[in-house]
Amino acid sequence: GAVVSQHPSRVICKSGTSVKIECRSLDFQATTMFWYRQFPKQSLMLMATSNEGSKATYEQGVEKDKFLINHASLTLSTLTVTSAHPEDSSFYICSARAPSLSTDTQYFGPGTRLTVL
Amino acid sequence: GENVGLHLPTLSVQEGDNSIINCAYSNSASDYFIWYKQESGKGPQFIIDIRSNMDKRQGQRVTVLLNKTVKHLSLQIAATQPGDSAVYFCAENMADYKLSFGAGTTVTVRA
Fold it and tell me: Which of A3, A111, B94, B102 could bridge across to B6 with cysteines, CB 3.0–4.6 Å?
């Protein structure tokens, strides 16, 4: 149980375009999902908390208008990188809590490698 | 701000030996800790967790030790195998269920 998927796994786009990344909890309902960014050889940095049915909360320094988050259902959260630039190239990872499994653990998706040309 | 950090960035271990990965945390109020394993190009994979009311927890080939007095966490891997080569992160549960990750330790298993 507690499987999280992400789509796409890799995306290459031109500068100025927008990219949408999906995060799905496959076998459980996730009222809360999290979005992280990870640069090469660095740790995971939390970008925002995605709450089903309400607005996302962003960490300090993360532009909410650039990284649009939508949590439309209990199994899906999307992250849209708007007007992407080369500096947005990174590994984006989502996670989900599974309170129904009586655990505070976050389960992570496989990540999405974004390359902006 | 408060953070979780690791003592050593890399660890090289002979196959079959035991591995010990250390982690220091600074938030004395933290009550839940998790170890994750991340292979290259993949998302973090849950290994084991521990709550602050415990000082030791064992899983399959792994043991987590928690010393709240010195705010130290460690992960022990028994009989390390090539498949254990990865980056290991400790994470600390913060407010609102957020996780704060340490810098990560790269474990390389020598055949």
Answer: B102
Model pLDDT for residues B1-46, shown as the tens digit of each residue:
334 554 458 999 999 999 999 999 888 889 999 999 999 999 999 9
Residues of chain A contacting B46 with CB distance shorter than 8 Å: 105, 107-108
To the nearest whole number, what is the mean pLDDT of chain B?
A: 91
pLDDT of B50 higher than 70: yes
A49: contact with B, CB 8 A cutoff: yes
Contacts of B45 in chain A (CB under 8 A): 108
Confidence of residue A98 (pLDDT cuts 50, 70, 90): confident
Rg (CA), chain A: 13
* CB atoms closer than 10 angstroms to residue B97: 15
User: Testing the interface with B: which of A94, A104, A115 to mutate, by most B Cβ within 10 A?
Assistant: A104
Measure Cα distances from A106 to A12, A96, B59 in Å.
28, 5, 18
**pLDDT at position B5, please?**
55
Own/partner long-range contacts of B102-105 (Cβ < 8 Å, ≥24 apart): B102/A43, B102/B3, B102/B4, B102/B5, B102/B6, B102/B23, B102/B25, B103/A42, B103/A43, B103/B5, B103/B6, B103/B9, B104/A42, B104/A43, B104/B6, B104/B9, B104/B38, B105/B6, B105/B8, B105/B9, B105/B10, B105/B11, B105/B21, B105/B22
CB B97 to CB A104 under 8 A? yes
